[in-house]
Write a structure and sequence with these properties.
single chain, 95 residues, two-stranded antiparallel sheet, 4 helices, 4 strands
């Protein structure tokens, strides 16, 4: 019979909210965003914004700050490519 394992949920949450994990999340987002420099829309350059925030753990989001940002992502997949290039896993999220 395999040994029983008891997970320490409070300890895992504390680890996920640590400064080290926050720093790693931010570094990954900044790495992905750095590869997006130079994106152009029909009317000029597209600003790339990295937002850091907190849910039950540290989170960072990358935004193409342009009226056509969603269309650019849909047509060219800039964000998906940048994320996978930074070693991040990309998947669908329930809204």
């Amino acid at each position: 019979m395999p040994p029983r394992v008891k997970l320490d949920s409070a300890g895992m949450l504390a680890m996920l909210n640590s400064a080290g994990v926050r720093k790693a999340v931010t570094a990954s987002a900044n790495s992905a965003a750095a590869s997006l420099v130079g994106i152009e829309a029909h009317d000029g350059p597209v600003e790339v914004i990295v937002d850091e925030y907190q849910t039950d753990r540290p989170v960072a989001g990358i935004t193409l700050a342009h009226a056509g940002g969603i269309g650019l992502e849909g047509e060219y997949g800039y964000l998906t490519e940048a994320a996978t290039g930074a070693g991040l896993q990309v998947g669908r999220r329930a809204v």
